[in-house]
Amino acid sequence: MEETVEDPPTSAVLLDHCHFSQVIFNSVEKFYVPGGDVTCYYTLTQHFIPRRKDWIGIFRVGWKTTREYYTFMWVTLPVDLNSESAKQQEVQFKAYYLPKDDEYYQFCYVDQDGVVRGASIPFQFRPENEEDILVVTTQGEVEEIEQHNKELRKENQELKDSCVSLQQQNSDMQAELHKKEEELETLKGTNKELEQQLKAQKDHWENELLQLKEQNQKMSSENEKMGVRVDQLQAQLSTQEKEMEKLVQGDQDKTEQLEHLRKENSQLLLTLAQQREHQKKLKQTVEEMKQEEASAKKKQQQLTLLKRENSRLLSYMGLDFDSLPYQAPTSDQGGAGQNPGLVYGNPYSGIQESSAPGLLAIKRCPTCKSDFTDDIFDHTLEQQRMQTPCLNCPICDKSFPATEKQIFEDHVFCHTL
């Protein structure tokens, strides 16, 4: 066996790790004539993608590892893997590197990882005239060949079953991969949302941290101010203590003055307490005056209501409240004998009973011989002098025709009741 220029990258993979159904060899002859080049035709299935370091080797039947190749050739990568022509490939073995014996050999496609992806049927290298030579084989050789063929058929069936199983596994793995890709997209979306939330939370924390720093600076500044103020107060307290010590260490006169000042201070505090008590009594007095004022206003309202009711009763009796004689009480009387609840006095105090002497002079009406005051009598005389065609009441100015003299007299008499 002749050595090639470069050995395959790996060549120690066992048969258990091989996949014989991904590359299919086509048009493999039963034998090849020695001394000529051999072209190997093969097809790439859809589940296999060739790589740069893949190679095809010629192995003697019965090989155990890929290290037992006789010779090999590097494969040529197709330009377009998706085209139909890219699936049909070929490689040529030069006659110089081919075996010289008549053993059975086969083509094997090995990828760059050393895994067998396809194997051809067995073939031989022998001259064409050997077909005319009668080959005498023993029964044992025939049985051995048949057994070998049986094993090859069994291996082929196992390879087919393995191919179906691998295709099913590949389909399941594709579905699982699609499911994993969907889960990955979901996880990416969730991760993106979590990143956004984390960013928002981070911004919020940064803002809070900035605010806390500002508050810390303000508190530090206030702390410094309070420290300065405490120092000032301590200095003032120290000064006052020194002054107190000076006062204590002073003579008796200053002690007596201090005692006098303390007594005056106590007296002032007592006076202040008395003034506060007096102020409290004044407030109570003001409240009582406000209550009395409110009560007086209430009584005034009641008096107004009584006056209105009185006017209504007088009107009902045919009298006019404003025309009744009334004598306002003088200031020296002080409202004696009147109701203290009536601020403006008794409205009936100016009206005298018929049997009591009045403050005004009583005269008789020349018409009806009734008693009237002077002003009413003079008014009646004036009315008679003018000899008007109608009779007017001297009290309420109500007019009566001259023919109703009796009614007029009755009306004037009612005013005296």
List keywords for this structure.
417 residues; 49% helix; 3-stranded antiparallel β-sheet; alpha+beta; 5 helices
Helix content: 40-55%
Structural class: alpha+beta
Mean pLDDT: 77
Largest sheet: 4 strands, antiparallel
Q: What is the end-to-end distance?
A: 171 Å
Poorly predicted ranges (pLDDT <50, ≥5 residues)?
1-5, 325-345, 347-363, 372-377
Strand and helix order: EEEEEHEEEEHHEEHEEH
The radius of gyration is: 72 Å
The helix count comes to 5
Shape: elongated
Query: How many strands in all?
Result: 13
- Give the neighbour order of strands across the main sheet: 5-4-7-8
Strand content: 5-15%
If you had to describe this structure to a student in words, what would you say it looks like?
- This protein has 417 residues and is α+β, with helices and mostly antiparallel strands.
- Helix content is 49%, strand content 13%.
- The chain has helices at 84-87, 139-249, 252-317, 374-386, 405-414, and strands at 23-26, 31-32, 38-44, 55-60, 69-74, 88-93, 105-110, 116-119, 124-125, 362-364, 371-373, 390-392, 399-401.
- The strands form 5 sheets. It has a 4-stranded antiparallel sheet, with no helix packed on it.
- The longest helix has 111 residues, at 139-249.
- It is elongated.
